[in-house]
Amino acid sequence: MRKQIVVLGAGSWGTALATVLTDNGHQVTLWGRREDLISEINEKHTNEKYLPGIKLPEQLTATTSLSEALANKEIVLFVVPSHSFRSIVKQASAWIEPGALIIHAVKGFEKRTAKRMSEVLIEELPEHFQTKIAVLSGPSHAEEVVRKLPTTVVVASENQEVAEDLQGAFINDYFRVYTNSDMVGVEVGGALKNIIALAAGLSDGLNCGDNAKAALVTRGLAEVARLGTAMGAKPITYVGLAGVGDLVVTCTSKHSRNWRAGYMISQGKTLSEVLETMGMVVEGVETTRTVYQLAMRYQVEMPISEQLHAVLFADKSPAKAVEDLMRRGRTSEWEEIIRSW
Ligand SMILES: NC(=O)C1=CN([C@@H]2O[C@H](COP(=O)(O)OP(=O)(O)OC[C@H]3O[C@@H](n4cnc5c(N)ncnc54)[C@H](OP(=O)(O)O)[C@@H]3O)[C@@H](O)[C@H]2O)C=CC1
Ligand SMILES: O=C(CO)COP(=O)(O)O
To answer: Which intervals of the chain form a coiled coil (predicted)?
Structure first.
Protein backbone atom coordinates (compact mmCIF):
# COMPACT_ATOMS: atom_id res chain seq x y z
CA MET A 1 0.00 0.00 0.00
CA ARG A 2 1.25 3.48 -0.90
CA LYS A 3 2.49 5.31 2.18
CA GLN A 4 3.61 8.85 3.03
CA ILE A 5 7.22 8.57 4.19
CA VAL A 6 9.88 11.04 5.30
CA VAL A 7 13.62 10.29 5.25
CA LEU A 8 15.62 12.59 7.53
CA GLY A 9 19.21 12.81 6.27
CA ALA A 10 20.22 13.37 2.64
CA GLY A 11 23.67 11.75 2.75
CA SER A 12 24.55 8.52 0.94
CA TRP A 13 22.37 6.19 2.96
CA GLY A 14 19.35 8.46 3.43
CA THR A 15 19.28 9.18 -0.30
CA ALA A 16 19.67 5.48 -1.20
CA LEU A 17 16.86 4.41 1.14
CA ALA A 18 14.62 7.22 -0.14
CA THR A 19 15.24 5.83 -3.65
CA VAL A 20 14.20 2.31 -2.60
CA LEU A 21 11.02 3.64 -0.99
CA THR A 22 10.20 5.79 -4.03
CA ASP A 23 10.77 2.79 -6.32
CA ASN A 24 8.21 0.95 -4.19
CA GLY A 25 5.57 3.55 -5.10
CA HIS A 26 5.52 5.44 -1.79
CA GLN A 27 5.32 9.21 -1.63
CA VAL A 28 8.70 10.11 -0.17
CA THR A 29 10.08 13.40 1.11
CA LEU A 30 13.81 13.63 1.76
CA TRP A 31 14.96 16.16 4.36
CA GLY A 32 18.44 17.69 4.35
CA ARG A 33 19.94 20.76 5.99
CA ARG A 34 21.66 22.33 2.94
CA GLU A 35 19.65 24.44 0.47
CA ASP A 36 22.09 23.80 -2.39
CA LEU A 37 21.82 20.01 -2.06
CA ILE A 38 18.02 20.09 -1.72
CA SER A 39 17.71 22.26 -4.88
CA GLU A 40 20.03 19.84 -6.71
CA ILE A 41 17.85 16.86 -5.72
CA ASN A 42 14.62 18.65 -6.72
CA GLU A 43 15.88 20.21 -9.95
CA LYS A 44 18.57 17.87 -11.31
CA HIS A 45 17.53 14.65 -9.52
CA THR A 46 21.10 13.98 -8.46
CA ASN A 47 23.15 14.01 -5.25
CA GLU A 48 26.63 14.31 -6.75
CA LYS A 49 28.51 14.75 -3.47
CA TYR A 50 27.29 11.51 -1.91
CA LEU A 51 26.18 9.38 -4.88
CA PRO A 52 28.09 10.60 -7.94
CA GLY A 53 26.75 9.59 -11.34
CA ILE A 54 23.37 8.38 -10.03
CA LYS A 55 20.04 9.63 -11.40
CA LEU A 56 17.47 9.75 -8.62
CA PRO A 57 13.75 9.10 -9.26
CA GLU A 58 11.93 12.28 -10.36
CA GLN A 59 9.06 11.56 -7.94
CA LEU A 60 11.45 11.94 -4.99
CA THR A 61 11.09 15.43 -3.51
CA ALA A 62 13.35 17.11 -0.97
CA THR A 63 13.08 19.98 1.50
CA THR A 64 15.06 21.76 4.21
CA SER A 65 11.91 22.40 6.25
CA LEU A 66 11.38 19.84 9.02
CA SER A 67 7.75 20.82 9.58
CA GLU A 68 6.97 20.47 5.87
CA ALA A 69 8.91 17.18 5.63
CA LEU A 70 7.11 15.60 8.58
CA ALA A 71 3.54 16.73 7.84
CA ASN A 72 1.13 13.75 7.44
CA LYS A 73 3.92 11.16 7.36
CA GLU A 74 3.10 7.56 8.35
CA ILE A 75 6.72 6.44 8.50
CA VAL A 76 9.63 8.54 9.78
CA LEU A 77 13.11 7.26 8.89
CA PHE A 78 16.15 8.84 10.60
CA VAL A 79 19.45 8.48 8.71
CA VAL A 80 21.65 11.27 10.08
CA PRO A 81 25.06 10.35 11.59
CA SER A 82 25.08 9.35 15.26
CA HIS A 83 26.79 12.62 16.28
CA SER A 84 23.77 14.69 15.18
CA PHE A 85 21.06 12.13 15.93
CA ARG A 86 19.71 13.44 19.24
CA SER A 87 19.60 17.02 18.06
CA ILE A 88 17.65 16.10 14.89
CA VAL A 89 15.24 13.84 16.84
CA LYS A 90 14.63 16.70 19.29
CA GLN A 91 13.90 19.15 16.48
CA ALA A 92 11.68 16.68 14.62
CA SER A 93 9.75 15.49 17.67
CA ALA A 94 7.15 18.27 17.67
CA TRP A 95 6.16 17.65 14.04
CA ILE A 96 5.84 13.84 14.02
CA GLU A 97 2.27 12.57 13.53
CA PRO A 98 1.07 10.61 16.61
CA GLY A 99 0.36 7.42 14.59
CA ALA A 100 3.69 7.34 12.73
CA LEU A 101 6.12 4.41 12.80
CA ILE A 102 9.69 5.40 13.67
CA ILE A 103 12.73 3.70 12.17
CA HIS A 104 16.44 4.54 12.05
CA ALA A 105 19.28 3.18 9.92
CA VAL A 106 22.23 4.59 11.88
CA LYS A 107 25.30 2.49 12.78
CA GLY A 108 26.83 4.09 15.83
CA PHE A 109 26.38 5.00 19.50
CA GLU A 110 25.81 8.44 20.97
CA LYS A 111 29.26 9.76 21.86
CA ARG A 112 28.45 11.44 25.20
CA THR A 113 26.24 8.70 26.67
CA ALA A 114 27.26 5.52 24.76
CA LYS A 115 23.53 4.97 24.16
CA ARG A 116 22.03 3.14 21.20
CA MET A 117 19.96 5.21 18.79
CA SER A 118 16.71 3.51 19.80
CA GLU A 119 17.43 4.54 23.40
CA VAL A 120 17.81 8.13 22.23
CA LEU A 121 14.50 7.87 20.34
CA ILE A 122 12.76 6.55 23.46
CA GLU A 123 14.17 9.42 25.53
CA GLU A 124 13.35 12.18 23.08
CA LEU A 125 9.96 11.17 21.63
CA PRO A 126 6.59 11.17 23.41
CA GLU A 127 5.93 7.94 25.32
CA HIS A 128 3.34 6.53 22.90
CA PHE A 129 6.09 6.02 20.27
CA GLN A 130 7.93 3.50 22.49
CA THR A 131 6.21 0.51 20.90
CA LYS A 132 6.62 1.88 17.38
CA ILE A 133 10.39 1.98 17.07
CA ALA A 134 12.55 -0.11 14.73
CA VAL A 135 16.06 -0.24 13.25
CA LEU A 136 17.17 -1.15 9.73
CA SER A 137 20.64 -2.66 9.37
CA GLY A 138 22.67 -5.26 7.51
CA PRO A 139 25.18 -5.52 4.65
CA SER A 140 24.13 -2.64 2.43
CA HIS A 141 26.43 -0.14 0.78
CA ALA A 142 24.44 2.81 -0.58
CA GLU A 143 26.46 2.79 -3.83
CA GLU A 144 25.15 -0.69 -4.66
CA VAL A 145 21.58 -0.15 -3.46
CA VAL A 146 21.09 2.84 -5.78
CA ARG A 147 22.30 0.62 -8.65
CA LYS A 148 19.59 -1.86 -7.64
CA LEU A 149 22.10 -4.63 -6.94
CA PRO A 150 20.64 -7.49 -4.86
CA THR A 151 20.79 -6.50 -1.19
CA THR A 152 19.45 -8.06 2.02
CA VAL A 153 18.80 -6.22 5.26
CA VAL A 154 17.04 -6.73 8.55
CA VAL A 155 14.37 -4.62 10.23
CA ALA A 156 14.34 -5.20 13.98
CA SER A 157 11.65 -4.14 16.39
CA GLU A 158 10.37 -5.47 19.70
CA ASN A 159 6.91 -5.08 18.14
CA GLN A 160 6.48 -7.77 15.46
CA GLU A 161 3.61 -5.90 13.79
CA VAL A 162 5.77 -2.79 13.41
CA ALA A 163 8.64 -4.90 11.98
CA GLU A 164 6.30 -6.50 9.45
CA ASP A 165 4.68 -3.19 8.43
CA LEU A 166 8.13 -1.73 7.80
CA GLN A 167 9.31 -4.88 6.01
CA GLY A 168 6.32 -4.40 3.70
CA ALA A 169 7.23 -0.77 3.00
CA PHE A 170 10.89 -1.43 2.13
CA ILE A 171 10.94 -4.85 0.46
CA ASN A 172 11.20 -5.22 -3.32
CA ASP A 173 12.94 -7.40 -5.90
CA TYR A 174 16.41 -5.96 -5.30
CA PHE A 175 16.03 -5.05 -1.60
CA ARG A 176 15.04 -8.06 0.48
CA VAL A 177 14.06 -7.35 4.08
CA TYR A 178 13.97 -9.84 6.95
CA THR A 179 12.38 -9.14 10.32
CA ASN A 180 14.09 -9.67 13.67
CA SER A 181 12.97 -9.00 17.24
CA ASP A 182 16.42 -8.25 18.67
CA MET A 183 16.88 -4.47 18.45
CA VAL A 184 19.83 -4.44 20.86
CA GLY A 185 21.68 -7.11 18.91
CA VAL A 186 21.07 -5.47 15.55
CA GLU A 187 22.07 -1.99 16.74
CA VAL A 188 25.23 -3.18 18.49
CA GLY A 189 26.22 -5.35 15.50
CA GLY A 190 25.81 -2.43 13.07
CA ALA A 191 27.94 -0.13 15.20
CA LEU A 192 30.72 -2.57 16.11
CA LYS A 193 31.39 -3.97 12.65
CA ASN A 194 32.82 -0.54 11.74
CA ILE A 195 35.63 -1.04 14.27
CA ILE A 196 36.56 -4.38 12.74
CA ALA A 197 36.39 -2.85 9.24
CA LEU A 198 38.86 -0.13 10.29
CA ALA A 199 41.15 -2.89 11.59
CA ALA A 200 40.70 -4.83 8.31
CA GLY A 201 41.74 -1.74 6.33
CA LEU A 202 44.85 -1.39 8.48
CA SER A 203 45.63 -5.08 8.06
CA ASP A 204 45.25 -4.91 4.26
CA GLY A 205 47.38 -1.76 4.13
CA LEU A 206 50.12 -3.57 6.04
CA ASN A 207 49.87 -6.50 3.56
CA CYS A 208 49.02 -8.90 6.37
CA GLY A 209 47.25 -11.14 3.86
CA ASP A 210 43.98 -12.99 3.49
CA ASN A 211 44.50 -15.25 6.50
CA ALA A 212 44.71 -12.18 8.71
CA LYS A 213 41.56 -10.72 7.16
CA ALA A 214 39.65 -13.96 7.82
CA ALA A 215 40.99 -13.94 11.37
CA LEU A 216 39.80 -10.36 11.89
CA VAL A 217 36.31 -11.11 10.59
CA THR A 218 35.99 -14.28 12.69
CA ARG A 219 37.56 -13.10 15.90
CA GLY A 220 35.92 -9.69 15.34
CA LEU A 221 32.58 -11.46 15.27
CA ALA A 222 33.41 -13.15 18.58
CA GLU A 223 34.22 -9.74 20.03
CA VAL A 224 31.03 -8.13 18.69
CA ALA A 225 28.93 -11.03 20.02
CA ARG A 226 30.66 -10.89 23.42
CA LEU A 227 29.86 -7.23 24.01
CA GLY A 228 26.45 -7.44 22.34
CA THR A 229 25.40 -10.34 24.53
CA ALA A 230 26.62 -8.56 27.65
CA MET A 231 24.44 -5.60 26.61
CA GLY A 232 21.36 -7.81 26.23
CA ALA A 233 21.54 -9.03 22.61
CA LYS A 234 20.55 -12.52 21.50
CA PRO A 235 23.75 -14.34 20.39
CA ILE A 236 21.98 -15.85 17.34
CA THR A 237 21.61 -12.33 15.86
CA TYR A 238 25.35 -12.33 15.16
CA VAL A 239 25.18 -15.23 12.73
CA GLY A 240 22.65 -13.14 10.78
CA LEU A 241 22.75 -10.13 8.47
CA ALA A 242 23.49 -7.56 11.18
CA GLY A 243 26.38 -9.70 12.45
CA VAL A 244 28.47 -11.79 10.10
CA GLY A 245 26.71 -10.31 7.03
CA ASP A 246 27.66 -6.73 7.74
CA LEU A 247 31.14 -7.68 8.96
CA VAL A 248 31.91 -9.46 5.71
CA VAL A 249 30.75 -6.64 3.47
CA THR A 250 32.36 -3.84 5.44
CA CYS A 251 35.69 -5.63 5.82
CA THR A 252 35.91 -6.56 2.14
CA SER A 253 34.14 -3.88 0.09
CA LYS A 254 35.85 -1.05 -1.76
CA HIS A 255 32.84 1.07 -0.83
CA SER A 256 33.48 0.93 2.92
CA ARG A 257 34.57 4.26 4.36
CA ASN A 258 35.68 2.53 7.55
CA TRP A 259 37.87 0.08 5.65
CA ARG A 260 39.31 2.95 3.58
CA ALA A 261 40.04 4.98 6.72
CA GLY A 262 41.99 2.06 8.21
CA TYR A 263 43.89 1.58 4.97
CA MET A 264 44.88 5.27 4.81
CA ILE A 265 46.12 5.22 8.41
CA SER A 266 48.29 2.21 7.57
CA GLN A 267 49.84 4.35 4.82
CA GLY A 268 50.91 6.98 7.35
CA LYS A 269 48.01 9.46 7.18
CA THR A 270 46.90 11.02 10.46
CA LEU A 271 43.36 10.50 11.68
CA SER A 272 42.41 14.12 11.01
CA GLU A 273 43.85 13.94 7.47
CA VAL A 274 41.81 10.80 6.83
CA LEU A 275 38.55 12.29 8.08
CA GLU A 276 39.12 15.46 6.05
CA THR A 277 39.85 13.53 2.84
CA MET A 278 36.84 11.26 3.28
CA GLY A 279 34.23 14.06 3.44
CA MET A 280 31.72 11.47 4.67
CA VAL A 281 30.95 10.00 8.04
CA VAL A 282 33.32 7.30 9.38
CA GLU A 283 31.28 6.07 12.34
CA GLY A 284 33.89 3.52 13.45
CA VAL A 285 36.28 6.16 14.79
CA GLU A 286 34.03 7.47 17.57
CA THR A 287 32.60 3.97 18.08
CA THR A 288 36.10 2.74 18.90
CA ARG A 289 36.31 5.33 21.69
CA THR A 290 32.83 4.44 22.97
CA VAL A 291 33.42 0.69 22.84
CA TYR A 292 36.63 1.07 24.80
CA GLN A 293 34.48 2.46 27.65
CA LEU A 294 31.70 -0.09 27.14
CA ALA A 295 34.17 -2.99 27.28
CA MET A 296 35.34 -1.75 30.67
CA ARG A 297 31.80 -1.10 31.89
CA TYR A 298 30.63 -4.61 30.92
CA GLN A 299 33.96 -6.29 31.80
CA VAL A 300 34.28 -7.78 28.34
CA GLU A 301 37.56 -8.60 26.63
CA MET A 302 37.83 -6.86 23.24
CA PRO A 303 41.43 -7.24 22.04
CA ILE A 304 40.95 -6.00 18.45
CA SER A 305 39.00 -2.92 19.55
CA GLU A 306 41.55 -2.25 22.26
CA GLN A 307 44.46 -2.37 19.81
CA LEU A 308 42.61 -0.17 17.32
CA HIS A 309 41.93 2.33 20.11
CA ALA A 310 45.66 2.50 20.83
CA VAL A 311 46.46 3.03 17.12
CA LEU A 312 43.83 5.74 16.62
CA PHE A 313 44.17 7.63 19.88
CA ALA A 314 47.52 6.76 21.48
CA ASP A 315 49.89 6.81 18.50
CA LYS A 316 50.61 3.08 18.63
CA SER A 317 52.13 1.75 15.43
CA PRO A 318 49.76 -0.56 13.51
CA ALA A 319 52.57 -3.13 13.12
CA LYS A 320 53.07 -3.26 16.90
CA ALA A 321 49.29 -3.66 17.33
CA VAL A 322 49.35 -6.72 15.04
CA GLU A 323 52.30 -8.15 16.98
CA ASP A 324 50.52 -7.65 20.31
CA LEU A 325 47.37 -9.32 19.01
CA MET A 326 49.34 -12.36 17.84
CA ARG A 327 51.25 -12.62 21.12
CA ARG A 328 48.21 -12.52 23.42
CA GLY A 329 47.95 -15.21 26.06
CA ARG A 330 46.78 -18.60 24.84
CA THR A 331 43.04 -19.09 24.93
CA SER A 332 40.26 -21.41 23.80
CA GLU A 333 38.24 -20.49 20.71
CA TRP A 334 34.89 -21.24 22.33
CA GLU A 335 34.06 -19.37 25.47
CA GLU A 336 30.78 -19.55 27.36
CA ILE A 337 28.91 -16.83 25.46
CA ILE A 338 29.80 -18.08 22.02
CA ARG A 339 29.13 -21.68 23.06
CA SER A 340 25.47 -20.76 23.61
CA TRP A 341 24.93 -20.13 19.84
N1 LIG B 1 26.57 4.91 3.36
C2 LIG B 1 26.18 3.66 3.53
O3 LIG B 1 26.31 2.82 2.62
C4 LIG B 1 25.54 3.25 4.81
C5 LIG B 1 25.51 4.09 5.91
N6 LIG B 1 24.91 3.69 7.07
C7 LIG B 1 24.83 4.56 8.23
O8 LIG B 1 23.97 5.66 7.92
C9 LIG B 1 24.30 6.78 8.74
C10 LIG B 1 24.41 8.02 7.86
O11 LIG B 1 25.53 7.81 7.03
P12 LIG B 1 25.67 8.26 5.53
O13 LIG B 1 24.40 8.66 4.93
O14 LIG B 1 26.43 7.20 4.87
O15 LIG B 1 26.60 9.53 5.76
P16 LIG B 1 27.17 10.57 4.68
O17 LIG B 1 28.49 10.97 5.17
O18 LIG B 1 27.02 10.02 3.32
O19 LIG B 1 26.16 11.80 4.84
C20 LIG B 1 26.02 12.43 6.08
C21 LIG B 1 24.70 13.17 6.07
O22 LIG B 1 24.46 13.66 7.39
C23 LIG B 1 24.31 15.06 7.34
N24 LIG B 1 24.84 15.69 8.55
C25 LIG B 1 26.12 15.70 8.98
N26 LIG B 1 26.20 16.39 10.14
C27 LIG B 1 24.95 16.81 10.41
C28 LIG B 1 24.39 17.59 11.46
N29 LIG B 1 25.16 18.06 12.47
N30 LIG B 1 23.07 17.85 11.43
C31 LIG B 1 22.31 17.38 10.42
N32 LIG B 1 22.77 16.65 9.40
C33 LIG B 1 24.07 16.36 9.41
C34 LIG B 1 25.08 15.49 6.11
O35 LIG B 1 24.61 16.76 5.68
P36 LIG B 1 25.58 17.78 4.88
O37 LIG B 1 25.74 17.20 3.52
O38 LIG B 1 24.79 19.02 4.93
O39 LIG B 1 26.87 17.84 5.65
C40 LIG B 1 24.70 14.36 5.16
O41 LIG B 1 23.40 14.53 4.66
C42 LIG B 1 25.62 6.40 9.46
O43 LIG B 1 25.34 5.99 10.77
C44 LIG B 1 26.15 5.22 8.64
O45 LIG B 1 26.94 4.33 9.41
C46 LIG B 1 24.32 2.46 7.18
C47 LIG B 1 24.31 1.59 6.11
C48 LIG B 1 24.92 1.91 4.85
O1 LIG C 1 27.31 0.01 6.88
C2 LIG C 1 27.75 -0.03 5.76
C3 LIG C 1 27.55 -1.19 4.87
O4 LIG C 1 26.65 -2.12 5.42
C5 LIG C 1 28.58 1.12 5.28
O6 LIG C 1 29.85 1.01 5.81
P7 LIG C 1 30.88 2.25 5.77
O8 LIG C 1 30.31 3.30 6.68
O9 LIG C 1 32.17 1.69 6.24
O10 LIG C 1 30.95 2.72 4.34
So the answer is: none
